[in-house]
Design a protein that fits this description.
It is built from four helices and six strands, in the order ααββββββαα. The chain is α+β, with helices and mostly antiparallel strands. It has one domain (4-176): Sandwich (Jelly Rolls), CATH 2.60.120. Strands 1, 2, 3, 4, 5 and 6 form a six-stranded antiparallel β-sheet that branches. The protein is globular. 29% of the residues are buried.
Amino acid sequence: MISPDLLRRHLFFTDLTEDQLKSIAGLAEEVHCPPGEALFHEGHPADTLYLLMEGGVALYYTLTEDGTSARTADAMHPLMEEGTDVPLLEGEAALFKEYLVGEVHANEIVGISALIAPYRFTATARATRPSRLLKLDAQALHQLCGEDPQLGYGLINAAAQTAKERLHFTRQQLARA
């Protein structure tokens, strides 16, 4: 458990009540991630929401060599198995290409897919430098939201704002391409 004061300082949680902050703080665990380590992989179940306290995280979208998505809403390319990173075997590197689609900075949320059905990550998140994060279990968070619909509403609104900002970043990347 962490202090609710730690959450209160972050824009993502500003609309929450003291009791809601305490409930979420009870779920939070501090974790550290070295540069290059993946927090999660595109297409895998979105079981965790992170708040980046220090460091940096890059978000990548993976395409196959023919330019199609390496994942769909219900399935992944056979070579992108759960718990593994791309590529899996020697010589398969040419089958996939990762594209930078977002950058996450300190005090921002990572893994908003944990709040949005079908609860699958839509990108791979990888630390760009030593990072300190707060980790929230998505199932426990869903349970809290079920018990407190106002909490769920507040988190979904914050997630929508985050998605809007990330879409803006992606549009800028496309314009430069």
